[in-house]
From TrEMBL:
Location in the cell: Membrane
Keyword rRNA-binding: no
Protein name from the UniProt record: Fatty acid hydroxylase domain-containing protein
Organism in which the protein naturally occurs: Gossypium raimondii (Peruvian cotton)
Family indicated by similarity: Belongs to the sterol desaturase family.
BP terms from Gene Ontology: lipid biosynthetic process
Keyword Cell inner membrane found: no
GO-annotated cellular components: membrane
Record InterPro entries: Fatty_acid_hydroxylase, Sterol_Desaturase_Related
An example Gene Ontology molecular-function term: oxidoreductase activity
Main location (coarse class): membrane
Length: 257
C-alpha cells in the first residue's frame, strides 16, 4: 500500500513540476524574436492580465487540483492498471492506455471547450478568463477560471484515467506528457525541429489561431489531435509566414463566414 500511495503522490505532483520546468525552458526563448508567433510588444499590449496574476492563478489552481487528484486516485483506484499486481504493465499495454486516454481527453475537452464558447453565460463568466491572454505564453497554459479548470482538467483527467485503466504510475507519465503538450501549445514560439510540430497538427500555431484569429468559432481541439475540429466543421487551416520584423505569423487560409 505504501508503494501505491507513493505512486499517487508522484502522479499528482510530477506533472506540476514538469509544468514549471518546461515553461521556464520556453520563456528562455522570450527574447528570441525570430522564433516568436507574436512580438514582445504584442504580448505586453494586447494581454489583459498581468503575468503576476497569471502565476497566482496557476499556483492556486494547481493547489486545488493536486488536492482533488489525490482524492480521486484513492476513489477510482486502478492500482493494478489492468496488469497483475506483481508485474508492471508492459510497454504495449501502456501504449494502448495512452492512446485511449488521449482520445478520451481530446473528446471531453473539445466538446466542453466548444460549449463554453457557444454559451454566452459560460464564456463571459468563466472561459473569457483564459482568453485574456490574447497572446498566449508558456506558463499561462492553464490560466483559467477555477470552475473551468475543474470541468476541463479534473473531470477530463479522471475520465481518461478511469476509462483507460492505467495505473497511477502510468498516469504520471501520461499527465506529464499532456502537461508538456499543453505548455507547448500555448508557448507562443515556433521552434525549429520541435517534435510536437512534426507529429501533431495541433500545435502552437494551430492553437494561436484559436486565441488570436476568429477564436470563438474555430480550432477548439486540445491538447493532442485535430480530429474533432475536422469532423465537426470547426477546423481552420493556416499558413505560417515570416514577419518582416522577425518571427512567424499564423494566418488563416479561409476566412470566417
Amino acid at each position: 500500500m505504501a508503494l501505491a500511495i507513493s505512486d499517487e503522490l508522484l502522479a499528482t505532483f510530477v506533472p506540476i513540476v514538469v509544468y514549471w520546468i518546461y515553461s521556464a525552458f520556453y520563456m528562455s526563448f522570450g527574447s528570441f524574436d525570430n522564433y516568436r508567433l507574436h512580438s514582445k510588444k504584442d504580448e505586453e499590449d494586447k494581454n489583459l492580465v498581468s503575468k503576476a496574476n497569471v502565476i497566482k492563478n496557476v499556483l492556486f489552481q494547481q493547489t486545488i487540483q493536486s488536492t482533488l487528484a489525490i482524492v480521486l486516485y484513492r476513489v477510482i483506484g486502478n492500482e493494478g492498471g489492468g496488469a497483475s499486481k506483481s508485474q508492471p504493465n508492459s510497454i504495449t499495454v501502456m501504449a494502448g492506455q495512452f492512446i485511449i486516454a488521449m482520445f478520451v481527453l481530446d473528446t471531453w475537452q473539445y466538446f466542453m471547450h466548444r460549449y463554453f464558447h457557444h454559451k454566452k453565460f459560460l464564456y463571459r463568466h468563466f472561459h473569457s478568463h483564459h482568453h485574456k491572454l490574447v497572446v498566449p505564453y508558456a506558463f499561462g497554459a492553464i490560466y483559467n477560471h477555477p470552475l473551468e479548470a475543474f470541468v476541463f482538467d479534473i473531470i477530463g483527467g479522471a475520465l481518461s484515467y478511469s476509462i483507460s485503466g492505467m495505473s497511477p504510475r502510468t498516469s504520471m507519465y501520461f499527465f506529464s506528457f499532456a502537461t508538456i503538450k499543453s505548455v507547448d501549445d500555448h508557448c507562443g514560439v515556433w521552434l525549429p525541429g520541435n517534435l510536437f510540430h512534426i507529429f501533431f497538427n495541433n500545435n502552437s500555431a494551430y492553437h494561436d489561431v484559436h486565441h488570436y484569429l476568429y477564436g470563438g468559432k474555430y480550432n477548439f481541439s486540445q491538447p493532442f489531435f485535430v480530429m474533432w475540429d475536422r469532423i465537426m466543421g470547426t477546423y481552420m487551416p493556416y499558413s505560417l509566414e515570416k514577419r518582416a520584423e522577425g518571427g512567424f505569423e499564423a494566418r488563416p487560409i479561409k476566412r470566417a463566414k
